[in-house]
Amino acid sequence: MSTALVVGGGPNGLAAAVCLAAEGVQVTVLEAADEVGGGARSSEAIVPGLLHDHCSAIHPMAVGSPFLGRFDLRRYGLTWRWPEVDCVHPLDGGGAGVLHRSVDETAAGLGRDGSRWRLAFGYAARRFDALSDDIMGPLLRLPDHPLMLARFGVPTLLPGSTFARLFRTDEGRALFGGVAAHAFRPLHYPMTSAIGMGIIAAGHRHGWAVAEGGSQSITNAMVALLTDLGGKIETGVPVRAAAQLPPADVTMFDLAPGAVAGILGDRLPRHVSRAFRRFRRGPGAFKVDFAVEGGVPWANPHAHRAGTVHLAGTYAELAATEREVHAGRMPERPFVLVGQQYLADPQRSVGDTHPVWTYAHVPNGYTGDATAAIVAQIERFAPGFAERVVGKAVRSTAQLATYNPNYDGGDIMTGAKDIRQLTFGPRITLSPYSIGVPGMYICSAATPPGPGAHGMCGANAARLALAELGRA
């Protein structure tokens, strides 16, 4: 029987393990932390019974994931829940861009931009399930649907700032810009439309869902499936050197490229080691969870029903903020993302006290305390918020890196999503999961298609390994 070792038990490591085990490979997962899950973990915090997601929280790219769809994790307790409104981007004065699962409902709320929103996202939303076969894998390969991919893909090459000019209203530009800013990149850079377009199209097809019982439920379901397939998981086992790796036919690394280079040392080809050690990091996140009595008192009524709220003001203000962060300067008013998962999954609350999940974009390795800036941004669009806070829990950029070493400097994207790294992954190659050592692969969010609980980095790497084992 073929054997496989997976180093790192985040969603991608678990996905790789499941795909290998499903084909009869004997799999062992080694996780340095005391529990697997990476960013897809949840726990009670602040108030007993109040459930908070540690990092990954809203899952538009996971609901329709080919990996999750293949294995139907509903059998293992994974249930998706949807808020009434997917996302709201409020503006000063009370207005807002409002993103619904329905393209037509979203367009109807955007006035003069309605027809343009339909033009931009209607086609991709209708065909997203077919498109995902191509966009959820390496970009430089023969696509299954070349004409469809071309129609969707050409606009993704544009800077977000160029694409945003399609919209004539402040609401339309801000709504698109806030989603595009999930890339953690200055929006005037090429290809900064890509992540925004992908998330919006996926959301219009599948919605911005949350996992019932927290993102931990995604991890729990994968662990249960892997166990049924005969896989083994060992926690509290850090791997720092190649000598610690047991012999295996396949070794998968759900780690950042620099960590892989550190473990393998001279076993890596020199050009691969050089690329992995020079892998560029993106800006950081500064996370604050709040316990809020009565919920957030938003000025905009749609925000009271939204699973996600983006706080950045106008598109111009957002773009300026992202430039500052990329340049290593902490803005006075950072881009703040607010998650209200309890609206879709009420069991996360305790009575009228609700968990509110937030993080701000900050420079990589930011050593300051962004808590006051986050509170101020929420107060800007929800006056009286601070008076309702009954507790909070903070994770700085350093604490995020301790929680998950893949998040070096608070970089929850596992690497800057610039043109080269978004296209190729950790190094310039047509095989982004290969590391130049026979039988060894990298499957972390540093590889295509990138971050999320969709598991596709791991699934894609496992497919390559199985092909090289002669099992695909």
UniProtKB/TrEMBL annotation:
InterPro entries linked: FAD/NAD-bd_sf
Record's protein name: Phytoene dehydrogenase-related protein
Organism: Mycobacterium terramassiliense
Lineage, top ranks: Bacteria, Bacillati, Actinomycetota, Actinomycetes, Mycobacteriales
